[in-house]
Amino acid sequence: MTVRRLAILGSCIILAAAIAIRYISREAKSYCRLIPGDPTWPSKSHWDELNQTVGGNLIATTPIATPCHNSSSNALFDQEACEALRDAWFSPTTHLRHPSSPMTYQFTNNSCNPFTSPGSPCSLGYLPAYTINATTSAHLKAAVQVVKHHNIRLVTRNTGHDYLGKSTGAHALASFELIDRYDDHDNTYDGPAIKMGAGVEGLEASTFAHAHGLMVVASNGPNVDLAGGFTQGGGIGILSSRFGLAADQVLAREVVTAAGELVTTSPTSNADLFWALRGGGGGTYGIVVSMTVKAYPDTFISLAYLTVLADANASNTEDAIYAAVGTFLQSLPALVDAGVWLVWVAHPGGFLVTPAMASDLHPAELDALFQPTLDALDSLGLRYEYSSAEYPDFLAGYHASTTASWPVAKANIGGRLIPRELVQDADSLAALVTAIRLIGSQTVMSGAAFNVAGARDDVAVNPYFHKTLFSAVMSTPINYTDWAATKAAQDKLTYELLPAPAGTHTGR
């Protein structure tokens, strides 16, 4: 069954600081959402009524780390449960299963930390007051009507893969269908399609597609929901170098609007909303109930992995590694133009590609595209491990290339889109390598390389994607026992590391 979670929140939007004092109290209701404690905040009977309307799926939020805190009012303190939570804290599954726990912990404002002492405070902080475990469009419509009536903020959450913390807020509230031949009535697509409910994850969609001899553009994280912020924000997928961004795949959506109405959006129905939902930002324009996307004939997949091994005893190893990185970056246009999608990582211990993935390319063809980099590594005398393999279909390659246990909630994250022009000019390339070295020598920097230059221009995605060679991601660690250190790490990321690629002239 498809699950969509709604968080009921409270917030106040400050529209203008210059509003005359005598008007503030009179106008406050126009701009501010209710929060618990306000005189008109819904009573328990109101929440009980909503709970009945949504089939008992209303959940009062309890912070996930509540078992780790033994305040006098907390009857849920459980040291054994706390230890189990700490052990599983960095697994995405831990937060996926909780109705309100974000994978980007810093957006909770450290309000209930599982790693601090039992006597430390635990409060909702920026978490929602209530969540609706919505399984039908009727639940979604009921939620919208209630928050409109009571002037309460509403946010949506699918799986919680949200680097911007948009599915958290203070004091607030999967199905499939195969379409053999989709007719979108504007003559831009004629082929198979899959209709999926909101809440369907990449691995689930890929498994269903595989059973019908098809594949879809999915994220590299198998538990990322496809209909949520992934496609609504653009969506760099494993097959994007071949078929475009995830937003380019969308043929239609069913959406509950801010008016509480269930509507269909497509090129010919509510076309403006359809456009906005393809790249305009997740959780912004409506609550997506279902999504219909293009599907493609299944085919074989090749994967390649490269690990460059740093030699601690050689004083010039880092110089050599980043000389090879320069060659690798120069080869990226040829790789992505051939339909390859890949992730590379630079870190204090070396450099790796994990993995490179391509459909309809045999390992020998993938090897040839990596050969300039391998030749550079050989000439520089660097130790490395390189391997490639072929898989019979997309699902097999997807299983081999992804993991559901990638750690989350460990880092402050920022990023930039890096255009291909930077690797096609010697001076710009040198500046880019210098920036990557600056960051990679201190922390972890990664890049997801792709080519969507030929993608559709009738979507709401940032047009800079069309000239992007890779999406660079930088991170600094979260220190759960020293929040001042976490704040310093955030400042380092914001003011020192993130500006470095901008010095290469056009990185954004």
How would a textbook summarize the main sheet? Answer: 7 strands, antiparallel
Count of alpha/pi helices: 15
General form: globular
Strand order, largest beta sheet: 15-12-14-13-17-18-16
Proportion in helices: 25-40%
Number of strands: 18
CATH class identity of the largest domain? Alpha Beta
Radius of gyration: 24 Å
Distance between the termini: 40 Å
Tell me the domain tally. Answer: 3
Q: How much strand content do the residues show?
A: 15-25%
Describe the model:
- This protein has 508 residues and is an alpha+beta fold.
- It has 15 helices and 18 strands.
- It has a seven-stranded antiparallel β-sheet. The chain has a five-stranded antiparallel β-sheet with strand order 5-6-10-8-9.
- β5 and β6 form a beta hairpin.
- The two termini are 40 Å apart.
- Keywords: FAD, Flavoprotein, Oxidoreductase.
Task: Describe this protein with a few key phrases.
Vanillyl-alcohol Oxidase, Chain A, domain 3, FAD-linked_Oxidoreductase, 508 residues, 3 domains, disordered N terminus, 15 helices, seven-stranded antiparallel beta sheet, FAD, FAD-bd_PCMH-like_sf, 23% strand
Topology:
Elements: E1 4-9, H1 21-31, H2 44-53, E2 58-60, H3 79-88, H4 92-96, E3 130-134, H5 137-150, E4 153-157, E5 176-183, E6 190-197, H6 202-211, E7 214-215, H7 226-232, H8 240-243, E8 250-256, E9 262-265, H9 271-277, E10 287-294, E11 296-297, E12 301-309, H10 317-337, E13 341-347, E14 350-359, H11 363-379, E15 383-391, H12 394-401, E16 411-419, H13 426-440, E17 444-449, E18 468-477, H14 483-497, H15 499-502
